[in-house]
Structure prediction request, 277 residues.
Amino acid sequence: MLNWLGESHDTERDIRSFREEAHGLGHAKTVDEIRSVEARAAETYWRAFQKAVPSKLEFKSRSTRARNRQYNASDPVNALLNYGYAFLQSSVRRAINTSGLDASLGYLHEDQPATTPLVYDFQEPYRWLVDYTVLRMFLSRAFSWDDFYFTGDDYRYRFEPEAKARFLNLLRERFNSLIEYKGRALKWDTVIETKAVELGRCLVGRASRLDFSEPSPGLARNDSKELRSRILNLSQSKARRLGIGKSTLHYLHKRAEGEYSLNVYSGTRRKLQPAPV
Prediction:
């Protein structure tokens, strides 16, 4: 996710900080020390995430106060993240139950026995599925302010039923997307189930290793910093030579200057490619 964000936003410092914090895992000896490393790394991650969120959405952080647990988020982005993580938890819980694991026995969240800690542990490697969906949705303007509303006097965000259905469809699409793993094309939903089975095999001694870094998703974007810069530096005379009309150039300039995702028609994209050396 950080590398994907870095293709269109200035996140180099955040990525460097994240890697520095992650090195602390090599020195962590207890669960509390591991969670301390996680908390510091998360700060740098959400700082980078914020740079990709349109400013008018007023996303400041992923703090406890901002997200207010499950349903009472203080901004639209946290509202959708909360809902998306609940969707993820249902998928993880199903995988854990199907594989015969006990959701009440966990690792990093072992001090929260009433919250099925293994579910909270197991969802961590797959939170990006939700984060990516939320960002792509806002950057492509699939949602607007009209999809959200306040409730009562608590100034907490909810979203309209139709918007909720739209978001669920986007989540299902992402969870059903395919990734190659061990020579097979699997849906991410199936990957989660497979990992639960692999954890069970480790626990009973049938496997000696469990690697949550694989499969690694390949996130591609079509609005890199280089493309935006090329468009913003494109004059009318050069655009005309490339076969790009005046109205198209005006649209491209406007989109490249903004915060939202830059969608460029494939034919125009080919014209914008730098000439071969």
Observations:
- The chain has 13 helices and four strands.
- The chain has three domains: 1-52, 64-220, 225-272.
- Residues 76-99 form the longest helix (24 residues).
- Residues 255 and 262 are 6 Å apart (CA to CA).
